[in-house]
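We modelled the chain as a single entity of 220 amino acids. Its sequence is:
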Amino acid sequence: MLVAGVDEAGRGCVLGPLVIAGVAILTDELPNLIALGVKDSKLLTQKKRNILFQEILKLNLNFKIIKVPPLDIDKAVNCSIALHKLNRLEAKTMAQIIEHLNPDEAYVDAADIIEERYATHIKEHLTIKPKIISRHKADQLYPIVSAASIIAKVTRDKEIEQIKNKYGDIGSGYPHDKKTQNFLTQWLKTHKTYPPCIRKSWKPAKKALNQRNTTQQKLY
């Protein structure tokens, strides 16, 4: 039987893509994956993630990665109901990955507070009929999802490094990061709008833009 795991990285960030990855492997090969010691990518150091990333890809498996750019996220998300719309976008993208991998079963990390509702949203976009197991913290419960988590996180980290190389110190990209907040503010001092790497619909980006506009109005 072919089983798949799907997970994301970068969901809550104000900049960079949302990266969703899926891994599919035959159940007979699962012990080889487990033997690597895969676990939730957030519980691993960057060095360990990078090592496991390479080891996972050496196994007899299929994988698929989709990078959802900030522009597509902004088109889908309205901040007043951002969580709901982001969930639907993520479910649709996971469905595209599952469709590509064509497994018998797919384990996914549920973004929705209601696990089964998230599974239903995924099924709405599928033409195939695998069994969907949607669970909170699936990346900690199922090694196949842990593997997908590692691939998504390493891919996302590479994307952030490219952004840093282009724009300088942007911090982690998470809204609570002071460096990220400072980047948003400083950028708007010399530019009319944000660069393409910014999710303009996110509250921190809107807040910085509103503060800039308010300051300019006072000056004039």
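As a brief sanity check on the tokenised model: The chain has two domains: 2-164, 166-214. The first strand starts at residue 2 and ends at 9.
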